[in-house]
Amino acid sequence: MFKLADEHLEVAQKIAQKHRRKKHCDHCYDRGWIGINEQNLLVLCPHCVDREAALEEWKTYVSEHEDLKEHFSELFEEKPVEEEETESTIPVAHTKKPAQPQVKKTFVPGQKKFGRTKKIG
What are the Cα distances from residue 17, in Å, to 12, 20, 22, 86, 120? Predict the structure, then answer.
C-alpha cells in the first residue's frame, strides 16, 4: 500500500494553507485540512479551502517529482467529454399513474371514534 512521505505531506499542508478562502474556520481550526487518511494524504477542509486551486498546485508539485508521478497518475488522465446526441427526438406525453388507489375518506365530523380510548375511573 502506498504511503506518502512526510516531506511531501509538509508541502501538501503548505498548499492547503495557501489556498484558504476564509480567515477563521471552526471546522479545520484554521489549518486548511481536517486530517490525514491511511495513505498519509491530507483531507482538505470543504468549508475554507479552494479545492480546485489546491489540486492544480498539487498537480504541478507531483509532475516535478518522479516518485509521486506513478502513484498520482490518475490526476493527469484526461476524462473524455461525452458529446450530447444531436438527434431530434419527438417529445412523448407521459401519463402519470397514481402509485396506489386513494382511499375515500369516510370521517364525518361528530362521529364517535372507536379505538384506543383511555377509561377514566
Answer: 9, 6, 11, 45, 68
CA distances to 45, 53, 55 from 24, rounded to whole Å, are 12, 19, 21
Segment 37-50, tens digit of pLDDT:
888 888 999 888 99
Name the β-bridge partners of 44: 33
CB 4 within 8 A of CB 41: yes
> Each residue of 39-52: b (16+ CB within 10 Å) or e?
eebbebbeebbeee
For the whole model, what pTM was predicted? 0.59
Q: Where are the domains of the chain?
A: 6-75
Per the listing, cell 399513474 goes with 97
Q: Using DSSP, state whether 69 is helix, strand or coil.
A: helix
> What is the pLDDT, as a whole number, of residue 14?
93
